[in-house]
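Task card 7
Instruction: Convert sequence to structure tokens.
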Amino acid sequence: MTDIMIPNLGNEISEAEITEWLVGIGEEVEEGDVVLLISTTKTALEIEAPVSGKISQINFSEGDLVQIGDVVGQIE
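Output:
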């Protein structure tokens, strides 16, 4: 299993809102595919799949606030 994590977004940003999941549990993804959109008070970002595989877990829903380093999903 490989974690999908919220990356470090800079010194001034500690949390982000999940704007939209672009994939669902069971969907196949390729490394580099955009799987999630997040937004902060300063910017909107795309989160990419760190590896190829199948989405096996989604830990947060759209609209949830997440912290830097949170594991938002997993790929198997």
